[in-house]
Specification:
The complex is a heterodimer.
Chain A (H helix, E strand, L loop, with lengths): L1 H20 L5 H9 L2 E6 L7 E2 L5 E2 L1 H14 L5 E6 L4 H6 L5 E2 L7 H6 L2 E3 L4 E3 L1 E6 L14 E5 L3 H12 L5 E5 L2 H9 L5 E5 H7 L9 E3 L7 E3 L2 E3 L3 H19 L7 H7 L3 H7 L5 H4 L6 H9 L2 H8 L29
Parallel strand pairs in A: 1-4, 1-5, 9-10, 9-11
Antiparallel strand pairs in A: 2-3, 6-14, 7-13, 8-11, 8-12
Chain B lengths: L1 H8 L1 H34 L29 H34 L4 H15 L3 H15 L7 E3 L3 E4 L2 E4 L1 E2 L3 H31 L5 H23 L2 E2 L2 E3 L2 E3 L2 E3 L1 H27 L3 H9 L4 H31 L11 H13 L2 H30 L5
Antiparallel strand pairs in B: 1-2, 2-3, 3-8, 4-5, 6-7
Classes of the chains: A alpha/beta, B alpha+beta.
Chain lengths: 342, 387
């Protein structure tokens, strides 16, 4: 009897010890490792955010996030397959498991979070909705659009925002809803509408699709607040954790002054413990999520921190020429913030 | 015992049994699919059920026939979409049939050029996808129309520009309601008169003044009624202010483009059905009617078409159903039909794909079955009565 109790106690202790090393199962992460690449849902084509060039290479802020995630998970930023999705396709494609996540300038809203079975994992772009109009129409602000026709993508937050905004102000505006952003832009360009509405950042990119971009101007004052970020399905909390903290990691890196250029030197020499934890020099943070400890090192090394990515894709070094604005670090007057790596 | 065996071996009993088993099996499969889907959706945290229909839609629709406004619920949005689908389908059906008959008869013309043009049209239309037509008409229409400030004015009351055709709208519809009632009554009188005239002719052989009575009942009375209603009503005449004309009713270019695409496309197919129907009438019939002294026009009207219609009705039913289904191409150019509004905007706002797609399917199914039922009734009516 004594031997039995001892054996049982030993067995229980052994199981406990073993389970302390065990992680919650993550079917998504296992599937990514097994297939050898990340499946990332992006926009059909939005310069600055997700856009494929004539060689089929994807670039943009949302694309960069997926590359960083691939570098963190698989050690290689090129191991991503991008699936372009329309406004209508995006949720079903994620819900049905065809992609591991969406990084597709989609606005975080309450009802999407509560009824679509989707979680938003943070904010990688603070967007605000505005209008592009013809310069000769002499429109200074959205209030001047009384009586105008506005083209918009159906099912977007912009569609409802615009309808609400004009109704609240008793302005009569005709809203024509197209299935794709590009169709709405083409219709605006061909004279069907007086204005096309989308986010400030999106418009800066889409402007290039107009026949004569210089004939148009973007209204500066936004009518809404549209935070955007990566989206995952409900369930598989460990995968959600990874998606959330890779985004946090790119922002933390900018905050801590870690760039793709100095990351090797920082990892070797930095005295800052948060930098050391972020880059895997101490703390074993990667292992807590089932990733290698150099997960963020690889991501920063191969893709760069948030600021580098921003400048390259939508910032002043890009054709979009967007100021950092709200998308600046909170320490520099913006809204970007990340919880500590502790 | 032998009674039981006889019962089991009875062919009718077995037939009923197998059919009942199949039906129960299918029903069980359906129930399984529905349960499976709803369980999986609950697990994935996706909302299900039809509660969303009573939520505020918040979607602005540029072309509504119902009383829908942006603050109504999603169910009203659905009906607004259904009404728009029906509108474009019904008008396209009528126009496509008329144009198709014209082209079909032209293909049989004895004039070479007419025949060649009609033939080329049919071949062209039948070998090009409908989406091309829709986009061609849409961007063609918009490109061709002037901006609001350079609008084409129709007698200073209606205005055509690239935002659509703005037409005046009566402030109150009561006078028009009376006018339409008057027109309906005169149509009914005309129908009764024709019946009386036919019976009298059959009984006594005397002709009635069909043409004169027809002109009065079908032309004079409607024109007078509409003229009275037009003059007696106050009109909301569109006025140019700011970006566009204010007031009146706007027929949007999306509607015009979709209608034009459906009509020109379907007419090509209908023309072939008409040609096939006419050619199916034996040549001897036409020679016989000539021998009886009928003129070519009379032969076409009294001998060829009635017989051709019997051959044409079943394939025409198919084309009519195609027009209904093809009206969903409106989604490609922002025509606010049920697909665009309900399966596009509402689906995206609520994410309830299964419910919304099932409801949209039901709409097409119900309208389609109604069209089929009507055409079957018509087919039975014109079928050759054999004695």
């Amino acid at each position: 009897m004594k031997t039995f109790v001892l054996a049982a106690a030993l067995f229980a202790a052994g199981t406990l010890a073993a389970s302390a090393q065990q992680l919650a199962p993550s079917p998504t992460l296992d599937a990514i490792k097994a297939r050898g690449h990340l499946e990332c849902g992006v926009h059909l084509g939005l310069p600055g955010f997700s856009f494929a060039n004539d060689k089929g290479e994807w670039t943009g802020l949302d694309v960069d996030y997926c590359k960083a995630l691939a570098a963190a998970v698989l050690g290689d930023a090129t191991k991503v397959k991008f699936t372009p999705t329309s406004v209508q396709q995006r949720w079903p494609i994620l819900q049905s498991g065809q992609v591991d996540l969406l990084s597709r300038n989609s606005t975080i809203t309450f009802s999407r979070n509560a009824t679509l079975g989707l979680n938003f994992q943070g904010i990688n772009f603070y967007e605000g909705q505005t209008f592009i109009v013809r310069k000769k129409a002499n429109v200074k602000s959205a209030e001047d659009l009384d009586g105008a026709s506005v083209c918009v993508a159906a099912g977007s937050t912009e569609e409802k925002n615009a309808a609400d905004w004009f109704r609240e102000r008793n302005l009569k505006v005709t809203i024509t809803n197209f299935q794709k952003n590009d169709d709405a832009i083409t219709a605006y360009d061909s004279g069907r509408c007086d204005a096309y509405t989308a986010g400030v950042g999106a418009l800066a990119g889409q402007r290039a699709k107009l026949k004569v971009p210089d004939d148009h101007t973007i209204l500066t004052k936004p009518i809404s607040n549209d935070p955007q970020g990566p989206v995952t399905r409900y369930g598989d909390e460990r995968w959600q954790l990874i998606v959330r903290w890779v985004l946090n990691g790119t922002i933390a890196a900018e905050m801590l002054g870690v760039t793709s250029k100095n990351v090797d030197e920082m990892k070797a020499n930095s005295k800052n413990t948060e930098v050391r934890r972020l880059l895997g020099a101490e703390g074993g943070f990667g292992a807590m999520m089932g990733l290698p400890d150099d997960w963020m090192y690889k991501a920063i090394k191969q893709v760069g921190n948030y600021g580098e990515s921003y400048e390259r894709t939508v910032g002043l070094a890009s054709p979009l020429k967007l100021e950092r604005g709200q998308n600046q670090l909170w320490t520099k007057g913006g809204l970007l913030f990340t919880p500590p790596f502790q | 015992m032998s009674k039981v065996l006889a019962f089991i071996n009875d062919k009718r009993v077995r037939d009923v049994f197998y059919q009942a088993a199949l039906l129960i099996g299918l029903a069980a499969l359906l129930v399984y699919f529905i349960r499976n889907a709803s369980q999986n959706m609950v697990q994935a945290g996706i909302a299900s059920g039809f509660d969303f229909l009573w939520r505020t839609s918040g979607i602005e629709v540029p072309f509504v026939l119902t009383n829908y406004t942006q603050s109504d619920n999603i169910l009203s949005l659905f009906w607004a979409g259904v009404a728009n689908t029906l509108l474009v389908t019904v008008i396209a059906l009528v126009l496509a049939t008329a144009l198709g008959f014209l082209i079909g008869i032209a293909r049989l013309s004895s004039i070479w050029l007419v025949q060649a043009i009609a033939g080329a049209y049919v071949e062209f239309v039948r070998n090009i996808p409908l989406l091309f037509f829709v986009l061609f008409w849409y961007f063609g229409v918009i490109a061709a129309l002037p901006a609001p400030r350079e609008s084409l004015s129709v007698f200073g009351v209606a205005f055509l520009n690239n935002r659509g055709l703005t037409i005046p709208l009566p402030d109150a519809g009561a006078n028009f309601r009376y006018a339409f009632i008057a027109i309906a009554i005169s149509c009914l009188l005309h129908w009764l008169f024709l019946r009386w005239a036919r019976r009298r002719k059959e009984a006594t052989g005397r002709d009635a003044p069909i043409l004169r009575v027809g002109l009065v009942l079908l032309l004079l009375i409607p024109v007078l009624a509409l003229a009275w209603a037009t003059l007696a009503t106050r009109w909301d005449i569109p006025v140019l202010r700011g970006f566009n004309y204010r007031g009146g009713f706007v027929v949007i270019p999306e509607f015009v483009a979709l209608l034009a695409a459906l009509v020109t496309y379907t007419a090509g197919f209908i023309a072939e059905i008409v040609r096939g129907g006419i050619q199916s009438v034996p040549h001897g019939q036409i020679e016989a009617s000539g021998a009886l002294g009928l003129r070519p026009g009379q032969t076409l009207r009294l001998v060829t078409i009635p017989q051709a219609l019997r051959v044409m009705t079943p394939p025409m039913t198919n084309q009519y159903l195609n027009v209904l289904k093809n009206s969903s191409f409106g989604a490609a150019i922002a025509y606010p039909d049920v697909v665009s509004l309900f399966m596009g905007s509402a689906l995206n706002n609520t994410g309830q794909a299964i419910e919304i797609i099932a409801m949209t399917l039901a709409v097409y199914l119900v309208i389609g079955l109604a069209v089929s039922a009507f055409m079957n009734w018509y087919n039975a009516r014109i079928a050759l009565v054999t004695r």
